Amino acid sequence: MRLTHRIARLAADALRYRMIRKPRILPYTVSRTHYIEYDPKAVDVAAEVGDLIEDAAPWVTVEHIGSTAIPSCAGKGIVDLMAMYPPGRLKATRHAIDGLGFQRQKAGHVFPEERPMRVGAIEYDGTRYRLHVHVIADNSPEVASLRRFRDVLRGDPSLANDYQARKIAILEAGVSKPEDYTHAKGKFIEAVIGNH
User: 16 in a domain, yes or no?
Assistant: First the structure.
């Protein structure tokens, strides 16, 4: 009996601690696309925000994707997350994520509400990180594609370097609008996904 009481008390203390230290989602700022060196703290940011989302929506699984999920891969510096929900839970998932302070997109390649992306920012260790949360059905083929791209580049540093070189070339060509930058990377991403 005593052990059960102690475990319950520890669980309550842990929940209180998480509520006290819950990070605040800040407004997203749109800026010109520019190249930012890899920041290893982005992995911790992704874990923190993933926990925040999973606490608010326990039916959701969150994974870190995009350049900041690939060691030493520079890019726009945006922490991309994939929030995967089970069938029939899209509306509840959007509501839970919006309730944390995430916002709907207002610029760039705006995703439809049937496959939304939410944006926000967070202060972490004195640095402000921009966030993109891709809200995707867990049975969507897009989940496997995003994972495959991340995992292939994690496993092949040479290919990750090629990806960085491609992004630098895009920016050096004068591309600065986020939607144009995303479109210009598309062929490289499709080639990686299709070849592996």
Answer: no
Residue numbers of the domain that contains 55? 24-195
Instruction: Give residues with Cβ within 8 angstroms of 29, minimum separation 6.
Output: 121, 130
The CATH number covering residue 111 comes to 3.30.460.10
Helix (H, G, I), strand (E, B) or coil at 5: helix
CA distances from 54 to 25, 43, 97, 157 (A): 14, 16, 9, 31
Is 19's pLDDT higher than 50?
no
**pLDDT band (50, 70, 90) for residue 128:** very high
DSSP-H helix ranges across the chain? 2-20, 41-56, 90-99, 141-155, 157-172, 178-195
Q: How many domains does the chain have?
A: 1
Residues 131 and 79 sit within 8 Å (Cβ to Cβ): yes
Closest CA to 153 of 183, 192, 185: 192
C-beta of residue 31 within 8 angstroms of C-beta of residue 76: no
**Quick check: is 12 in a domain?**
no
Amino acid at 114: E
Question: Does residue 151 form part of some domain?
Answer: yes
Mean pLDDT, the chain, integer: 88
Orientation angle between helical segments 157-172 and 178-195, nearest 10 degrees? 150
Residue 75 belongs to a domain = yes
